């Protein structure tokens, strides 16, 4: 038994290093700020909701789940070809789980996340009460490495906080594509508290990580 213990400790240490290395960076989060405003002469782009989505991933001690959320609408504006302002609505009723098959827990998890299970409405997103979330750009800061730091107010369940994360923007032939690097947010800042060790005691290994990983994929057309 004594000979096994060092091996176990070594493996745990290795896993902890790999986990930290592979984890997406947390978005800078702060108080809500004033939305960016563009000139009347700005070019307007309308988000293609059928080609845009937000990928999500949640973590727990025994594994993870992932899926997508659709956008309901969105408008972006540029000045001299550079993204300056914009807003988009997120359709929370469209939450899907993509790592489970139908009949293998997929529908149950989707219902739990949406809050359509009686008595569990407020566990996660309670879409009957809060059918949409929103993001409004507050600033953009291009860098020399090809990335742009996008900052904006994210509103979920009527809680609004400003977050910043890196994106890549391509703009050609009247088409704009915005793709973020994977980043995480602390869900408890938006009152999504179910299973959080930072909110509830005595959860043991039945907790769910506070961090949710997101990746934004947007396509928009000049209008």
Give an account of the 3D structure.
The chain is mainly beta and 223 residues long. The chain has one domain (24-222): Lipid/polyisoprenoid-binding, YceI-like (Lipocalin), CATH 2.40.128. Helices cover 13% and strands 48% of the residues. The chain has two helices and twelve strands; from the N terminus they run H-E-E-E-E-E-E-H-E-E-E-E-E-E. Strands 1, 2, 3, 4, 5, 6, 7, 8, 9, 10, 11 and 12 form a twelve-stranded mixed β-sheet that branches. The longest helix has 19 residues, at 4-22. The radius of gyration is 20 Å and the shape is globular. It starts with a helix and ends with a strand. 23% of the residues are buried. The model is unreliable at 4-21 (pLDDT under 50).
Using the 3D structure, state the CATH architecture: Beta Barrel
Count of domain modules: 1
Query: Can you tell me the residue ranges where pLDDT is under 50 for at least 5 consecutive residues?
Result: 4-21
Total strands: the figure is 12
Main β-sheet: number of strands, strand sense, barrel status?
12 strands, mixed
């Amino acid at each position: 038994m004594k000979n096994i213990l060092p091996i176990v400790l070594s493996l745990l240490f290795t896993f902890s290093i790999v986990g930290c290395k592979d984890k997406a960076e947390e978005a800078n989060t702060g108080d809500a700020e004033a939305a960016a405003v563009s000139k009347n002469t700005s070019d307007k782009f309308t988000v293609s909701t059928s080609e845009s989505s937000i990928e999500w991933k949640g973590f727990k001690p025994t594994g993870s789940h992932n899926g997508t959320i659709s956008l309901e609408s969105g408008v972006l504006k540029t000045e001299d070809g550079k993204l300056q302002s914009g807003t988009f609505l997120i359709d929370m009723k469209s939450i899907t789980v993509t790592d489970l098959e139908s009949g293998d827990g997929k529908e149950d998890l989707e219902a739990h996340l949406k809050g359509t299970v009686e008595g569990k409405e407020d566990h996660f997103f309670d879409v009957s009460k809060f059918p949409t979330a929103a993001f409004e750009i507050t600033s953009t800061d291009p860098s020399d490495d090809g990335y742009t730091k996008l900052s904006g107010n994210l509103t979920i369940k009527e809680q609004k906080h400003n977050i910043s994360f890196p994106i890549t923007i391509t703009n050609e032939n009247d088409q704009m594509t915005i793709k973020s690097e994977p980043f995480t947010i602390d869900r408890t800042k938006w009152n999504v508290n179910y299973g959080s060790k930072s909110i509830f005691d005595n959860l043991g290994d039945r907790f769910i990580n506070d961090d949710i990983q997101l990746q934004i994929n947007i396509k928009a057309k000049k209008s």
